[in-house]
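Consider one such protein record:
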Amino acid sequence: MNVLEHTTIGEYVAKDFRTASVFSKYGIDFCCKGNRTIEEACEKKNLDFTQIENEVAQLLETKSDGAIDFKSWPTDLLIDYIEKTHHRYVEEKSAILLSFLYKLCKVHGYNHPELFEINELFKGCASELAQHMKKEELILFPFIKKMENAIRTNQAIEQPHFGTVENPIAMMQEEHLTEGDRFVKIAALTNNYAPPSDACNTYKVTFSMLQEFEEDLHKHIHLENNILFPKAMEMESQLCNAILSLNQLHSS
C-alpha cells in the first residue's frame, strides 16, 4: 500500500477509527496531536516507523465491521452527536468522579498521597471542560451550522465578531491539548489506571471510570480536531470564494 507522506495521523483516524487502536498501542496521540505524520510521531518517540505503517496499512485493507463513517456525516448531525454523546458524557461523569475522588482522598490519601494530585488534576479538567463545551455550544457550533445552512440555501452570512472561524478553532484546539496533557499526568499517577493492592471497590471503580473518561475524551477531541474543524474551515473557504466570485461578477 502506498501511504502518502503528508497524510496525518488524524486523517488516518478520520478515515477509519479502527486505526486509533494502533496509535494508542504505541502511545501516539491521535487526537490532540493528530496533525503529525506517522513518521514525525515515530521520530519523536523513537518508534519503528515501518512496523507501525504496516500495521495501519493491514488494518485499512481489512473490511470494517460496520464502523461509523463520521467523516461522511453532515456537520449539523456531527455537532448534534458530539453534544448529545460526548458533552453529555463529560457533564454526567465529571460529577460522579469528583465525588469518588474526594472520598478516596479522605479514606486512602494517607497511604496514597498521589490521590490528592489526581483529584486536583481532575477538578481542573472538569472545570475547564465545562467552560470549553459552553463556548463550543454557544459560539462556535452555532456558527458552523449557520455556514452549512448558508451553503445549502446559497445565501450570504454576516462575518462573525471573532473574524475567521480559524480563531475560535485554534483556541479550542489549544484547550484540547491542555486536557490531553492533563490526562497524561493522571495516567502516570495512576500507573495507567492500575489500582494498588489495597484498593477497595470504590478505588477500583474510580480508576476504571478515569480510564473510560480519558478514552471518551480522545474520541471526542478526535471528532472535533480531525473531522469537524477541518470541515468548518473548508466551508468558510467555500463561502469566501463564493463572495469573491460574486463581487468579480458585479464589477465586470
Q: What stands out?
A: The radius of gyration is 21 Å. DSSP finds eight helices and no strands in the chain. Residues 193 and 204 are 9 Å apart (CA to CA). Residues 201-251 form the longest helix (51 residues).
